[in-house]
Amino acid sequence: MSFSDLGLSEKVLAAVAATGYTTPTPIQEQAIPHVLARKDVLGIAQTGTGKTAAFVLPMLTILEKGRARARMPRTLILEPTRELAAQVKENFDRYGAGQKLNVALLIGGVSFGDQDAKLTRGVDVLIATPGRLLDHTERGGLLLTGVELLVIDEADRMLDMGFIPDIERVCKLVPFTRQTLFFTATMPPEIRRITETFLHNPQKVEVSKPATTAVTVTQCQVPAGREAHEKRELLRRLLREAKDLQNAIIFCNRKREVAIVHKSLQKHGFSVGALHGDMDQSARTAALEQFRKGELPLLVASDVAARGLDIPEVSHVFNFDVPHHPDDYVHRVGRTGRAGRTGTAISLVTPLDQKSMVAIEKLIGQSIPRAEGDYAVSADTGEHSDRPRESRGRERSRGGRGKPQRGGRDRERSHEPREPRGEARHASETTPSAEARPAPEARPAREPRPPREARQSSEPRHGARQPANPSHVPSIGRPEPRRQREADSEPGDHSHLPAFLLRPVRSPAGA
DNA sequence: AAAAAAC
Questions:
Q1: Do the first three CATH levels of A3-207 and A217-382+430-448+462-501 match, i.e. the same topology?
Q2: Which of A217, A209, A279 is nearest to A50 (CA)?
Q3: Could you tell me which of A70, A83, A224 has the C-alpha nearest to residue A141?
Q4: What's the Å distance between residue A199 CA and nucleotide B1 C1'?
Q5: Which residue ranges are recorded for the region named Disordered (predicted)?
């Protein structure tokens, strides 16, 4: 099967060929003919399956005929986050380079006037997040009565984020006769309900990836102290000692924590950016762009970066916080080990996170071994006392997550004196000095990766659930007396860091 | 236990 069998126009085929793709992914193969036949499509597909091109390519073919009128876009694509919307626009720019197409991006955090001017000129493709889109319609600068094709992307995530009422409003503004493409990764009851009202006789296209992590990803958990400064210290150590680290995303559960960890790593000399929803849009875009280009090897992020964002070739994912919902673990870890490449996912696990880890192991159907090292329970033997774990369960239900929760304030722990904000404890908050450490298997990080047996070759795509191979568990240094680690380098001394992880002299301010 | 999205 090749792209030329799907009914796409010559121009689009040429654009696809120019990017080097030759074979459509399953979702593309199934969805594109239906889209071109102007059918409604219900696509059940995770990110990373080629879903975006599955609607972008046929839309480009459809849009070759006809022209846009002022303030009346011909097609509309709804995305849950600004970054995803921007990414879809990049797809139109890439594959639509050969045609005169007006593509507008309506997202928050950027100039309203520029967007309005663009709408006035007439757009073929409007890509939007719900808030800004409705803002434009309410001000009268935008008419949705000319929309021939509506795409609702990442619908289940929109549900999680409380966007469904907005989506329903938008659906009342577009013509009843439009074509609708609806994509979701899961089918909770609320999503099933809205597909029945939004879609007319939809063609169902399902390419559900298993609720599991890629077999090429080496996963491990590192026991961590429950205090945040202990975790930051452990993170620095893990970063220094990580094997084959090219670039990494460090996930935190809270935006505040993202900011703190980012600042802390910067202070300790790491070249690191940050990404979360409270940053202003230019900082978000800049951080993502620098990370993509490789200018920043490290990115501290909230779950805004967990799903959908196209960040190629991440070698490591760190869960600074264990996610509370197992699905989020799968999405985070899915940032590495893509397209059959190897990757490493390391989770810092406090005693409070044990329950979450059990739920994660149950969902992915494998136990996640503990890393060896002085934080491990059984460091000497390398045996993992708690495996194999019973791990057959596989329910994908996200029951109870349907309603957005608002107003949850962070609770401060009060039984102990607070650590001063922003890392004022360097003298006692420690990491091992370079000399004290046994310079373990820390290769220079740019060195090519050692060959790994091609484990993925004969694996079934679905439900690969063999336990992780203990021989691939990264060793986190050798056990050493806790005392020794008290003598950390000063925050200013970065001589022990791999050069590419170092902050450049004229460092771009992060968040 | 959170994050995300409009001004």
A1: yes
A2: A209
A3: A70
A4: 36
A5: 374-511
